[in-house]
DNA sequence: TTTTTGATTGACGCGTCAGTCAATAAAAAA
DNA sequence: TTTTTTATTGACTGACGCGTCAATCAAAAA
């Protein structure tokens, strides 16, 4: 079976396997062997390509956040008004692709690892900064100086719905989260 | 030094040490030896009293949540109106005693362990249920049927500020969180 | 065909950690 | 005083996980 050009294939498979494994175990306490098995390779190969377990986990995190980033960008495209773009940000945050049990569990686990790992911390901060700057940019023309503080609150609301979903049993209810968050924004704007 | 009646003293010291250790490491990945050393005893003694590491961690979690519960109850006492009690709930949630880096880190870590451990999950659900029922009870006379949905949103807001604080560097800014959350409630009530 | 290069893994060393156990020491009870 | 009970720990073990390494295998290049 040894064919040339396997590296990118294996890397992707391992990262995907890591996300799934973290999601299914609900914790970063996954072994390289578990990840490798799920990806259909040996643990030695995982080390061969990634060097260390931490590198695998960081790559998984990067992938989750970049998926979210892509969605955010895509959702805002074509929207004409600021309020539409705000709604698009909220919708993307709770879209079927991102607001999923395994992704939520992984995302939560990364929050914890950000307490220790510099890489994880940096990546999460980038995501925070981008979300924040997006929100402020759209809010400013609508509510002026209050945009900064309100962006923080909206972000907290989004993160809050994420973490609470992590504790729920059933499949995520993105619509309720969207309704609440968008509702908050609408009331904000209506009041000026 | 062996004196009788050490058990409750040791238990308390070990649980406190566990909270501090988790907070300082920012993760549940703490060893029994670390906890025991911080409490000034051997790891064997920790096992002697608690039987297992998981029991220590669960006890630590129970303690954090019961501290929060006490504060919540105390804060509501003496308040006459529903809106005052709502503000008291928010203030207690972000009080100096609870909204502290090590407690926040431990709390976050417990959220993760709730994905795996039945005990942790159960404890967190109790906290959620109590907060939810408190909020609904006070909101109902003010906004009627919308109370249920809004209680969920307020809870998400609180949890969201917690998790976002976990990523920040400096010491927690409880006032800002209180201002935002209480502000949300005020606007809610003002609109009827 | 021979050589090189990339893919792949089984086996293993090294460290860590949870939990056990037997032994010691001192207080309390008999 | 002798016996029992409680507190306490050093030493140990069995399991587990990361990361390494030498070896194998097949495709590609020479």
Write structural notes for this entry:
The structure is a homodimer of 192-residue chains. By secondary structure, chain A is mostly helical. Helices cover 77% and strands 0% of the residues of chain A. Chain A has nine helices and no strands. In chain A, helix 1 (7-25) crosses helix 4, helix 4 (53-76) packs antiparallel against helix 5 and helix 7 (118-143) packs across helix 8 (147-165). Chain A is elongated, with a radius of gyration of 19 Å. The model of chain A has no long low-confidence stretch (mean pLDDT 93). Chain A binds a DNA duplex (30 and 30 nucleotides) through residues 1-7, 10, 31-33, 41-45, 47-48, 51-53.
Summed up:
By secondary structure, chain A is mainly α.
Strand content of chain A: under 5%
Order of helices and strands of chain A: HHHHHHHHH
The most extensive interface, with participating residues per chain, is: A-B, 38 and 38 residues
Q: Give the termini separation of chain A.
A: 64 Å
User: What is the helical fraction of chain A, as a range of percent?
Assistant: over 70%
Number of strands of chain A: 0
What characteristic shape of chain A results from the CA principal axes? elongated
Radius of gyration of chain A: 19 Å
Report low-confidence residues of chain A grouped into runs of 5 or more. none
Supply the helix-strand structural class of chain A: mainly alpha
Number of helices of chain A: 9
Oligomeric state of shown chains? homodimer
For the biggest sheet of chain A, the summary is: none
Overall pLDDT of chain A: 93
């Amino acid at each position: 079976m040894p064919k040339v050009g396997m590296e990118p294939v294996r890397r992707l498979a391992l990262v995907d396997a890591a996300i799934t494994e973290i999601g299914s175990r609900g914790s970063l306490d996954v072994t390289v062997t578990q990840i490798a098995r799920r990806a259909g390779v040996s643990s030695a190969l995982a080390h061969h390509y990634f060097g260390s377990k931490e590198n695998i986990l960081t790559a998984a995190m990067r992938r989750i956040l970049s998926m979210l980033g892509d969605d955010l960008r895509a959702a805002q495209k074509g929207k004409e008004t600021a309020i539409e773009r705000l709604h698009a940000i909220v919708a993307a945050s709770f879209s079927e692709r991102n607001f999923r049990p395994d992704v939520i569990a992984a995302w939560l686990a990364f929050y914890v690892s950000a307490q220790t790992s510099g890489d994880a911390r940096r990546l999460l901060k980038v995501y925070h900064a981008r979300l924040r700057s997006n929100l402020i940019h759209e809010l400013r023309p609508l509510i002026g100086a209050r945009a900064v503080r309100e962006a923080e609150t909206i972000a907290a609301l989004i993160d809050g719905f994420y973490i609470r979903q992590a504790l729920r049993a059933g499949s995520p209810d993105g619509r309720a989260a969207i309704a609440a968050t968008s509702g908050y924004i609408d009331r904000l704007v209506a009041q000026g």
